[in-house]
């Protein structure tokens, strides 16, 4: 094997790493945007819960379902908001795991390239 083959292998690995880096960074941005959106929804649910629990007894409250509004009592609304928040938190946890997986895959690819380069340098 000549130097051209060594350089070709390294060039291929570098191109693959660049592609993987670009894809990983794009996935990271998308996941972070989803996490931010869900965090905002959790905060919104908390604020709405605070507001409706401070309402006096007997106040009519409504929940939107599509284009309709359904009358619900305050404890039911609080329970619904709480379950939504818990669902959002579970989704955030799974997104964080996915983010860790993407980061780990990128780090593994970078380490593989480093190993390839060091192995090729030792053969020279």
Automatic annotation (TrEMBL):
It holds the Pfam family Prefoldin_2. One of its GO terms (molecular function) is protein folding chaperone. Keywords: Chaperone. InterPro entries: PFD_beta-like, Prefoldin. SUPFAM superfamilies: Prefoldin. GO terms for cellular component: cytoplasm; prefoldin complex. Heterohexamer of two PFD-alpha type and four PFD-beta type subunits. Belongs to the prefoldin subunit beta family. This is Prefoldin subunit. It comes from Echinococcus granulosus.
């Amino acid at each position: 094997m000549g130097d051209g083959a060594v350089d070709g292998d390294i060039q291929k690995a570098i191109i693959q790493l660049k592609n993987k880096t670009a894809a990983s960074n794009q996935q990271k941005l998308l996941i972070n945007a989803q996490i931010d959106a869900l965090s905002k929804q959790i905060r919104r649910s908390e604020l709405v819960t605070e507001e409706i629990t401070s309402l006096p007894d007997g106040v009519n409250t409504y929940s939107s379902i599509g284009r309709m509004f359904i009358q619900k009592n305050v404890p039911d609304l609080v329970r619904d908001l709480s379950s939504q928040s818990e669902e959002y938190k579970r989704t955030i946890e799974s997104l964080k795991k996915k983010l860790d997986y993407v980061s780990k895959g990128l780090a593994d690819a970078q380490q593989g390239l480093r190993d390839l380069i060091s192995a090729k340098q030792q053969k020279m």
